[in-house]
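One-letter codes give the sequence; the fold follows as tokens. Both lines appear below.
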Amino acid sequence: MKRRGLLAAGGALALWPLRPALAQPEASALERVQQRGRLSVAVYKDMPPFSDGGQGIDVELAAALAAGLGVAPSLLPFQAGEDMSDDLRHMVWRGHYLGFGPADVLLHVPVDRPLMQANPRVQIFGPYYRERLAIARNLARVPQMESLAALQGQPIAVPGQTLAGWLMLGADEGRYRPQLLTHWKDGVAAAQALLRGEAAAAVATASELETVLAGDARYAIEPLPLPKARDGWVVGLAVKREAGDLAHALQAALNGLSASGELARIFGRAKVGWRAP
């Protein structure tokens, strides 16, 4: 019995080095960012004035948020998918089917309760801007405008495959459809058409119109006078659901940018008026 006990003990000792070491606690999302020294930030391609060719409001915001965490920014530009849930899947929690992503954080996400409920694998937080639809008009051609009826007979530039385009197509039971110039790729291009005199007015997001026309006394930029365009929408940040510590750190950095006035200055450098969420 004693011999068998010694053999059993010896066998256990012989096998001991082969046992796996105790697993180390997995680093949190914030710890991983700090360990590698950079924050991966997903930004939309071709979305002026927020992100276009490596420049824009969201590009500057990405750098400011990374600095708030004490790391460098690493941009991950991507083309928008079919809908927002696609973008959250590709850039926040799973990765893109083309082989890139996910990022640590995605910018310019609508802070919208139905979107949150439809995407339980992400956290949407950090509202940083209220966007809205607006109309810009040439004051020499349309000096007064109490309603869209003031534009009757005048060419109106509007990007067709956008909320602005869809609303203008249906406005006043389609009254303005013959006047709409809808071939523009975005609202910046529509505003530039107005600037060149190719239209009497342009309809797009306020940020797109302001970045081209703000400060030019020849043009007025006003909220689009349609009920569905009145309140606008708020954009913020998104991270993985389990990245709570990273979300907390990003929110603190964003709060600091807002309190110091730097957030408003970032928008101002693009000639866009910062509208608090």
User: Anything to note?
Assistant: DSSP finds ten helices and ten strands in the chain.
